[in-house]
Design brief:
transcription, 2 domains, 11 helices, single chain, 72% helix, DNA-binding transcription factor activity, transcription regulation, 2 strands
């Protein structure tokens, strides 16, 4: 398990054990990272993810506090970390299949999408900003890829990609929570793909989709590897 994930689970255990109670302020970052023998960068990423899950409340200039989340809800919110780790190899295989099939769908869509479809894709990209919450970004991501697959004109390919995409939702959520600038990167790459589709450049749309899927696949591989401490 990656060090950032270990930090998250350690803080979770401190809350569940009662060591940290609702409303309690966390020790300073330096003190907590030294106590848990983690790099400050790993600790910072863990706090950021727990803040996004509404488990911690970061008050600028004041400190970081535990919210009033009940232990049962905390367990539910955190369970997907271990589940995703257990399914790591299967998810990697799914991304590998997506990397093969989705570029072909993009190439087909470049010649078949209607102007109204392209406009809808642009509106979808424009509806998300760097400040959008991770659930909104993942919802956009799923719809974006589904629209391109449908635009390929091949119902079987679109159906297959839809079934594969649904298996990767947890990984997408976790990337959005833990990878710095993940939203900006996703929007930049989606925008470039739409530009290629609008130009009716099948080869470019295919290449950009390969790069996009491979980037997510690469993150997933790095996520599962232990981090070195600073």
């Amino acid at each position: 398990m990656a060090v950032t994930d270990e930090a998250i689970l350690t803080i979770k255990q401190m809350i569940l054990s009662g060591e940290l109670r609702p409303g309690d302020r966390l020790p300073p970052e330096k003190e907590l990272s030294e106590r848990l023998r983690l790099s400050r960068n790993s600790m910072r990423e863990a706090v950021k993810a727990l803040e996004a899950m509404k488990i911690l409340d970061v008050r600028r200039g004041d400190g970081t506090y535990v919210t009033s989340l009940e232990p049962e809800l905390l367990n539910e919110a955190m369970s997907f970390i271990l589940e995703a780790q257990q399914d790591h190899e299967a998810i990697l295989e799914i991304f590998a299949v997506r990397r093969i099939l989705e570029p072909a769908a993009s190439a087909l869509a470049a010649t078949r999408l209607e102007e109204s479809d392209l406009e809808a894709l642009r509106r979808s990209v424009d509806s998300i900003t760097a400040d959008s919450d991770v659930e909104e970004v993942v919802s956009h991501d799923l719809a974006f890829h589904a629209a391109i697959a449908a635009g390929s004109g091949n119902r079987y390919l679109a159906s297959l990609l839809d079934s594969l995409s649904g298996r990767t939702v947890r990984a997408r959520l976790w990337r959005g929570l833990t990878e710095e600038h993940a939203t900006e990167r996703t929007l930049r790459e989606h925008g470039a793909i739409v530009d290629a589709l609008a130009a009716r450049d099948a080869a470019l749309a295919e290449a950009l989709t390969v790069s996009h899927i491979a980037g997510i696949e690469g993150w997933l591989r790095r996520w599962s590897e232990p981090e070195s401490s600073d």
